[in-house]
Amino acid sequence: MSPTHPGRFNQFHVFHEVLSDNFVIQPVVFGLRRSERTMFIQLSFDQRTAEQKTELFRTIVADLRLFADVPEEDIMLMAIETAGENWWAAGRVVDAATGYDERMTDVPTRAASTA
Q: For each of the chain's 115 residues, which pLDDT tens digit applies?
């Protein structure tokens, strides 16, 4: 596991499609015109550096453009950073040295992931 992708074993995807009547978006957001097909993607994970988040955002946009033909202007991303200790699952015990469940192997140390 690389420090740029910590926690890759704990991935959850929730897709929620709403009808246009239930999704209100201004036609111009952050100075860019948006269409009715705008996607709002919210990510939740432990802290990442600004560089890691920028690379993640670039990758998501590139993949959506390449594989789903979604215009860049219709993609909005937001990251919510939540410390690992704020997540709970049955049987989970956080190793204070790594921030990961103590049963997980091949995880970076805190020093390596912040370097």
A: 344 445 455 567 788 888 878 888 888 888 888 888 888 899 988 888 999 999 999 999 999 999 999 999 999 999 998 877 777 777 777 777 777 778 777 776 654 444 4
Q: Which of 20, 40, 43, 15 is nearest to 30 (CA)?
A: 40
pTM, two decimals, is 0.65
* 84 vs 81: CA distance, rounded Å: 9
Q: Which amino acid is at 22?
A: N
DSSP string, the chain: --TTSTTTTS---------GGG----SEETTEE--TT-EEEEEEES---HHHHHHHHHHHHHHHHHHH---GGGEEEEEEE--GGG---TT--B-TTTSSBTT--S---HHHHH-
Dihedral, CA atoms, 111, 108, 14, 67, nearest 10 degrees? 100
